Amino acid sequence: MNKKILIVVSTYYKEISNFLLQGSTNFLTKNNQVSYEIIEAPGCFEIPFLINKNIESYDGFIALGCVLRGQTYHFELISNECSRKIMDLTISSKKPIGFGILTCENIEQALARSDPNKLNKGREAAFACLNLLFK
Hints:
Layout: E1 3-10, H1 14-29, E2 34-41, H2 47-53, E3 60-68, H3 74-93, E4 97-104, H4 107-114, H5 121-133
Parallel strand pairs: 1-2, 1-3, 3-4
């Protein structure tokens, strides 16, 4: 049975997003039970909208991006609201959403968590999505 996955990736921090995307797509490519498509969001805040807009067309989703702490409350607003809405969507739709949105203090932390050869949270998000999809 071929399942369809939509990867929604924020392009705000392009290098980090590319690493996360590489981790996800490498993992999905090794699994012959799924096909995937990719769409880009300008930032993490827009990811839940794009998932919701496409909720009926796919069996599962992977949300990828990065939010870095700055000097204002903006970090908390984006991080909290984005994760809350993604959780709301996965519960209401009964469809898995792999959460690969990094919330880091600085770019060094983001690079460490997105490195395709190390601890890649994009790969982990793809694993989580597939694990739930086939439960």
